[in-house]
Every structure is written in structure tokens, then in C-alpha cells.
Amino acid sequence: MEHWICKTCGTQFAASEQQPETCPICRDERQYIGYNGQQWTTLAQMQQDGFQNEFREHEPGLIGIGTTPSFAIGERALLLQHPEGNVLWDCMSFIDDATVAEIKRLGGLSAIAISHPHYYSTMIEWAKRFGATIYLHEYDRQHVMRPDKRITFWSGETLPLKDGVTLYRLGGHFAGGTVLHWQQGVNGKGALLSGDIIQVVADRQWVSFMYSYPNLIPLPASAVQRIREKVEPLQFERLYGAWFERIVPHDAHAVVQRSAERYLRALETPRP
């Protein structure tokens, strides 16, 4: 029996003798089947193939964890150090003994919170290694490919995790699309950890919003307006996207607001 991992999205499946026929996460119109067709791997095979994780400090108390060479979607996770217990924001597929040892050195892990199903990856492996609880929004329950008792499905619009650490459901990319607000980040100015529910684009003075990124399906105006309204009361100087370089370092609250306005204008106003 193997816990097969989709090579395109990085999602790990419940144990089976045979490889799954297909990956429902990738068959969804927000994702895609890989160019070479449906392909699978395992954690053991990834170790043999030479994958490893690197750690980079973004700021005091926030450490990025990314896999090299890049695998599947290529997102990096964020380890938020907190006196009440560390939180892993988003997740990626590869985990090994060296990763576990480094995270334990940094204070361990008590909770895992994930923005949306594309980053569910091997979340159960991570939770098992650290005895952590996984927090997913109930609206995305149907996208869990490896059910487990370690998952807590939360409901509503907000969920306080720790002192000054709160999850907000924004929707958009997925119905349960979630961001994490870290009140103590950036020396108390606040940080927003957004995955790609709010996507940092190539010009880091802007962000954007999509239903599907690889297939370029935009969100309707109502969804973008909801996101803008939900984050408007939050204080955050910096926004961390899903990859090491995808960060809005300064004035991120204003960046999100003006980016939403630009998006809405683009939907409503013909370009010359």
C-alpha cells in the first residue's frame, strides 16, 4: 500500500495498492493534468530522487520552507513562530527527517493552516510527524484526498488560532479560500499570509485575484469586491504570497485595495 502523490499538484492520496486513476484536484478547471499525462510518485521516491528542503528567514519569527528542485506547484510553506505554539502556513509535498529536525530546533509545530486545496499536499504526513492539528475551511472539505482525524474543519468567516494570529475566509479562488493575519508581524505593523488567494504578481507593487491561474479564468467582480471588503479592516504592512520572492514588502494594505480597484475597472471599462 502506498500514499501516492500527484506530480502536477503535489496532493497525497489515501493508501492504495494501485496508483489512482486520476487526480480530482488536477481535473478541476482551476488546475490541469500534467503535460505528460497523469503521473505519480511517493515520498520514498522523492528522497531517492534527491529532493530536499531549504529554510530562509523572511523576518524574525517567520521562516520560509521550500523544496529544491521545485516540485509540483512549487509553493513554499511559512513557519510562524509563536509563544503559544508554532503554526505552519500552507504546506508542500516533501518532508524528511532533516526537515523535521530543523523545525523541532525552531520550536516544533502545533498547528497547520492551509489557504486552499492546491496546497493540501502531504499535510497528514506533516501533522503526524509533529502531532499537529490541521485547520481547513469546511467549504473545501470535498477536496481532501486523504481524510484523517487530525483535520479540523472550521466554519464561518474567522478563526482565531493564537494570540494575534487569525484565519479569515475570503473565498475567491476556492469557496473556502483563507488568509492568515499575523498582528505581531513586521514589528507590530502586521502581516498578511495569503498563499495565492491574493496573488502577488511580477510587479510587486500590485496583487491580483483569479479563479484559475494556469487556465487564466478571472474572478467575477462580486468575488473581488468581497475580498477587498474583508481585508479592508485589517492592519498589515507586508503581504506574503506563496513563493519565496512573491512578497509585497511595504504598504501592502494599500496595494491590495488599489489592486482590487484596478481589477474591477478592468472588468467594467473597455481598454482603448
What does this structure look like?
The chain is 22% helix and 27% strand. The chain contains 7 helices and 19 strands. The protein has helices at residues 24-27, 43-48, 97-105, 123-130, 185-188, 221-231, 252-268, and strands at residues 5-6, 40-41, 52-59, 62-68, 77-80, 87-89, 111-113, 133-137, 151-154, 158-162, 165-169, 178-182, 191-195, 199-200, 207-208, 210-212, 217-218, 238-241, 247-248. Helix 6 runs antiparallel to helix 7.
The helix/strand series, from N terminus to C terminus, equals: EHEHEEEEHEHEEEEEHEEEEEHEEH
Taking the alpha carbons of the first and last residues, their distance comes to 58 Å
Helix content class: 10-25%
| Largest sheet geometry | 7 strands, mixed
What is the fold named in CATH at topology level? Metallo-beta-lactamase, Chain A
CATH level-1 class: Alpha Beta
Q: How many strands?
A: 19
How does the helix and strand content classify structurally?
alpha+beta
Task: Please tell me what the overall shape is.
Answer: globular
CATH architecture title:
4-Layer Sandwich
Spatial sequence of strands, sheet with the most strands: 3-4-5-6-7-8-9
Spans of at least 5 consecutive residues with low confidence: none
Architecture blueprint of SSEs:
Layout: E1 5-6, H1 24-27, E2 40-41, H2 43-48, E3 52-59, E4 62-68, E5 77-80, E6 87-89, H3 97-105, E7 111-113, H4 123-130, E8 133-137, E9 151-154, E10 158-162, E11 165-169, E12 178-182, H5 185-188, E13 191-195, E14 199-200, E15 207-208, E16 210-212, E17 217-218, H6 221-231, E18 238-241, E19 247-248, H7 252-268
Helix pairs in contact: 6-7
